[in-house]
Amino acid sequence: MPPALALEHYDSTSDSVFARALLFGQRSAIETYIAEEKPDLDAPLRWSPDSPMRPLSLVLTQLHSQQRYRLPRNGPLEPPADEYELSYLLLRFNAQSVYQEPHWQEQSPLHMLMMLPDTQQVRLLPLLLRFHGEACLPLKDSNENTPLMLAQQQNSPLTPLLEKYKPTGLSDYQIRSAPFAYAKGERIYEALAKAQSLAEAVEKQDVQRMDYWLDQGVSPDTYHLHPNGIPLLYTLARHKGREGLERWQQYRANFRIRDLQGQQVLHHLVQFAPDGFAPQERLQFLLNAGADLHARDDEGQTPLAMAQKANQQIWVDLLVKAGAR
Question: How far is CA 163 from its chain centroid?
């Protein structure tokens, strides 16, 4: 059986692809990767430039947006697993539940629960406690808050549970085995690796690599791993050259693709001053390709409103000239 990653064929790192698998909730791909590569699940993943995180921290702090599960998923990706399923998967493969995350205000996993929806908080607390997480109860974050203090401040449903909890010193949930779906996991992991390679080619403005992965069937409607949930199209719209945009149009990209805030490409573009390209030409290209001049994000804001808020008068004038009201 070939290695799950076969990363010599891609230009993305195993860390970034593993992080992508976690953030997209691809359970069988994660199981296959762990079984094949036997990674250190307590080592920080360098998934973003500034904040390396342990896999469990990544799951607890980055998956709570409900919009994430509505992002378009192309190719053989399976329905995403949620925070509980992925936490359980990592813990039963010996990921530790007692630590403090230096890039997240010295919070422990129990602190991180307070960021999640109420239902997930209630589901995850018993799981973490059973995997020795009760040792996190006395830990204080950088604001000198224990998990209980943070729960009280945020009116969390965990408050009464933590107030009454008595540490047992035992763990009755030490299940360290898992079924694997190697063939399915390899296919999904390969798709994630290719998508991450295309994302890195866009970041580096490597047109040759973009062409290669688009020709290999990777969808142009792919999202960046970091910043979280940003379509690749948004990055291309701000590049000096328009070669990437022309390829996205050629490969029938969705020029009305939305990010996690419901914004489209023009919402994003008009918040920044033009850098190395003619703004009128860029705007016209995007409109001709299908961008929506009158799109509204989740808060009802149009691109014109975003340009006004960002004090980008050049975009305000061009949008009004193009018919925005």
Answer: 33
Read off the amino acid at residue 215. Answer: D
Share of the chain above pLDDT 70, in %: 88
Q: What SS3 state is found at 237?
A: helix
Task: Give residue 75's pLDDT.
Answer: 63
What is the Cα–Cα distance from 251 to 245, expressed in whole angstroms? 10
Location of structure tokens 């360290």: 176
Task: Considering only the C-alpha atoms of the chain, give the largest distance between any 2 of them, rounded to a whole number of Å.
Answer: 69
CA of 24: how far to CAs of 195, 202, 245, in Å?
A: 12, 20, 25
Token code pair at residue 75: 């190719």
**Mean pLDDT in residue range 141-146:** 96
pLDDT mean over 61-66: 73
Residue type, 79: P
pLDDT tier, 37 (very low <50, low <70, confident <90, very high otherwise): confident
In this structure, are residues 58 and 22 in contact, taking their beta carbons and an 8 Å threshold? yes
This prediction's pTM = 0.81
Q: Which two tokens stand for residue 179?
A: 């079924």
Exposure of 307 by Cβ count < 10 A (0-12 exposed, 13-18 middle, 19+ buried)? buried
Taking the C-alpha atoms of residue 33 and residue 165, their distance in angstroms, rounded to an integer, is: 36
